[in-house]
Amino acid sequence: MKPEHWWFRARCNIINEILKTFLDSKDKKYVNILDIGSGLGQLFPVWKEFGNVYGVEKNIDFTELSKNNYPNVTVWNDVFPDKNSLKYKYDLVCMCDFLEHVPNSNLILERINKILNKDGLLLVTVPAYSWMWSKIDVEAKHFKRYSRSGLIREIELCKFRSIYSSYFMIFLFPLVIFIRKIVNPIVNRNKGLVDFKYGKGGLSNTILYYIFNLEKFFIRRRMILPYGLSVLGVFKKICD
Length: 240
What we know:
Number of domains: 1
Radius of gyration: 17 Å
Number of strands: 7
Oligomer: single chain
CATH architecture: 3-Layer(aba) Sandwich
Strand content: 15-25%
Shape: globular
Low-confidence stretches: none
Mean pLDDT: 89
Largest sheet: 7 strands, mixed
CATH class: Alpha Beta
């Protein structure tokens, strides 16, 4: 998906609201942020508002594009935990739609805990609900989908404490369920609404962006939405 895709744009706004809540009081000159599985760097502009940004991405083409598009960001072509990112300490580590690609998260989470500063934060987003598993997950090489409680339980086992978590994409939830569970089986297609490639300026892209973007007003107030297509969690490192 392109950066102007409605899903990327609205997700960036929601994450920005979260970071304002937890990082706005810090001097960004001294805040180090690591983005694990940084992809094309779509979230780099968000992270840059709050500190110095580092990224780890295993896809060499994505890494090169990120370096060209964001010359002020340090991006390593590697698989976390990698020797480069482990050299530094961070105030925030982010895994946005990354953890579902990991068969065993314990090693990842334990290493993240070690490279976080005291009271460091971990921000995670993952797809919701195992009952929503479909061919889309198989093609995307997912290993799992999460409930909100399941995400909290998995991460808290690795010396973190949940300080905020919520479902999101609540308004589009009924429409996507209808398409994936009713429409797709009938027409024998396994592509959900979130995979449509609406282009910049397209009417559908604009409408879906504004619907999704409404959720930032709830997230800003740290409200817990009862359901949605994804889960967002912010966790604090527990010091020994």
